[in-house]
Amino acid sequence: MSTTGTESREPETDAPHTPPSPDGAARPAAEVRLLEPGEFRAAHALFGAALHAGGPVDDDHWALTRLSYAPGRTFGVDLPAGTLAGTAMSFGSALTVPGGARVPMAAVTRVGVRADRTRRGLLTALMREQLTDAADRGEVAATLRASEARIYGRFGYGVASRGRNLRVAAGARFRPHTPSGGEVRLLHPEEAAPLLPSLYARILGATTRPGPIVRDEGWWAHVLRPRRSADGARGIAVHTGPDGDDGFATWTVRQEGTDFGENVLELGDLHAATPQATAGLWRFLLGIDLLRAVSAHLRPLDEPVDLHLEDPRACRTTGIGDETWLRLLDVPAALAARTWGEAGGEPLRIRVHDALFAGNDGVHVIGAHPTATNGAYPTDPAPAEDGPADLECDVTGLAMAYLGDRRPSELVASGWWTAHDRAAVPRADQLFAAPAMSGVPWCGTFF
Ligand SMILES: CC(C)(COP(=O)(O)OP(=O)(O)OC[C@H]1O[C@@H](n2cnc3c(N)ncnc32)[C@H](O)[C@@H]1OP(=O)(O)O)[C@@H](O)C(=O)NCCC(=O)NCCS
Question: What keywords appear on the UniProt entry (predicted)?
């Protein structure tokens, strides 16, 4: 895919600098390069320091962490002396879109710039290179989790799924009508490594919820690496229903006081194929002895924990946060990959602005072309057109509606989208809505 867009700003005197190219065109202020595997550890240390996430990792930790650095996907920017000043990496994944198809996706992570080299355009240069590289690989989208909400919008990322933070009183009683059945068993960490990746893949294969992604081997190796004593104990449980293993949860426990029982179980991961398995795992967690509460971060907005409890106030929402930040790299392919709601009438014309990818910039027609069926989508999506449009937005605004998280009417009302034809707004709401029974967008994988 071709790129367009503005040049990076001039470097400050101590920022990395490259001379103009022979044809006289200005070069980016910072020269981004692919890092060699031997440099990944330095990149990891730089990222950890940028995030204030502790010192360099020890050899045992690194032996497993390095597996999550995919070759050919870790970028860096150097100081003039050759020391690394900034880095960003991704791993190849796939994103579930409305209707259940999965599109190739870059999972972007470990983005950091040395504190003494920030605000000189290094991230801007890294992002441009990384997004172009992902698009050249045929990846339809890139997603990430943002440490701060003001960083990534300028690069075309928009919040495409959100999650709910919960604190549930331990021992809370379940209503008699809560789905039930099945067994829960604890796993030793050594048992989890061969079991959880395939169980997660089975659950993912059955879901039509927009947002979940494929987890690669490196992700699992990093997450299931042996714990250090400072990390606290990890718990792992699997739920078995009538068709075999159908859900799992992982957690750690932290002390909130000095007495027995003053503990909070912090949920890490909970994925399940059925409502019975979801309820069974929550019932198990809330029934563990010597806990004060179970807390969970960025759970699906529609997860019915409170609906299962005799006292729904035992489940407190402590926050709602952004989860998936989505950058659409190939808008025609992304629009062809998802299914659309029934809206009737003429096809909808949306003008999309994208300063980086010329193929995205133009009018996209929804409702006139074949789209995804049975998880497969057309390989020759309709290119952007010229001409008038009913609605207009930039690629960030499109990402906010793409999985079904934000309705076009909300985005028009808040100024993210412009409506040239008011009658198009309710039709856009119907078209963009995720299929009724699939659930609200949610990913559930932190990276
Ligand atoms: C976030 C980070 C990578 C930005 O790197 P950087 O090289 O300073 O970014 P750039 O200089 O390319 O910034 C580009 C623009 O984004 C803005 N920006 C960058 N980081 C920002 C932030 N945290 N908050 C608000 N604006 C920010 C800059 O001001 C600049 O805008 P301007 O041109 O209008 O001044 C860097 O500050 C960092 O490493 N932070 C700590 C680690 C972290 O949070 N990493 C992200 C993990 S998801």
Answer: Acyltransferase, Transferase
